[in-house]
Amino acid sequence: MGLLFVILIIAGIIAIYDSIRQVNKNILAQTEEIKRLREEIQESKKIKTTSAK
User: Counting Cβ atoms within 10 Å, is residue 34 exposed (0-12), middle (13-18) or buried (19+)?
Assistant: First the structure.
């Protein structure tokens, strides 16, 4: 019974670790997407101000 309990605890810890890793991976992907979008907006602003002159 004790061995089963230990196995369940270890499986739970691994599941929590994997969930945190997936969330972190998603946050990093979103951060990269935000950076890319900011750069595109800056490029767009530069083009608009240049063509407006």
Answer: exposed
